[in-house]
User: Fold this.
Amino acid sequence: MQIGPAVENLVENAAEHNPEPTPTVRVSVSLDGDADEAVVTVRDDGPGLPPIERRTLEADHETALVHAGGLGLWIARWGARAAGGDVAFHDRADGTEVVVRVPVASE
Assistant:
């Protein structure tokens, strides 16, 4: 699985769930040379992840009482894990930051 769908879902989710008339979403890509990882960071100026979403993602499963409202963040997590990496969610004073780390493919 390619990491593209994971990042696409993060960008779409950030824009879609921002109530501002012109939401801002920034994507950056870098290499972490020490860990041989590609790092994709998606930052937005939205209201942040609802606590129930965060608990569900951190628990890594859903129940009848604790569940996510959609599949976008799950797709991002599954995509990153399928590529051998992971996703971390961080609250910021001005929005949310999602960091996707995946190993760099060797040639």
In short: The longest strand covers residues 95-103.
